Amino acid sequence: MENLEIWEKMLTSMGIIFIVIGVALIMIPLIVKMIPSISIEKIPWILLWVYRKDGFTFATSPLLIIIGILYLIWIKLKWIR
Q1: What is the per-residue pLDDT for 66?
Q2: Whether the Cβ atoms of residue 62 and residue 46 lie closer than 8 Å to each other
Q3: Distance between CA 25 and CA 30 in Å, rounded?
Q4: What CA–CA distance (Å, rounded) separates 36 from 32?
Q5: Which of 15, 20, 68, 81 is deepest in the core (most CB within 10 A)?
């Protein structure tokens, strides 16, 4: 029973971290639009990738996507065993 509580706390913590990172990534394009003098090009592409075209701005984190995919694979492998 204690193992279940530990897993529950760990997954809850990881979920909160992903939510905070997601909110930050949603805010980045808005900040870039409001303050065009900010140079996003100085941030390594693995941390933040920004796509701009015709007034549309899309930002994501390839590192966050990779970590999320690896985490899901890890959970599936644990579940199968």
Answers
A1: 92
A2: yes
A3: 9
A4: 5
A5: 68
Q: What are phi and psi of 39, to 5 degrees?
A: -95, 100
What's the CA gap between 67 and 11, in Å, rounded? 14
Contact 62, 50 (CB under 8 A): no
Instruction: Give the pTM.
Output: 0.49
Residues of the chain with pLDDT under 50: none
| Cα(59)–Cα(51) distance, integer angstroms | 6
Strand (E) or helix (H) holding 35: none
Residue type, 13: S
- Three-state DSSP class for 28? helix
pLDDT at position 70, please? 92
Tokens of 34: 């409001």
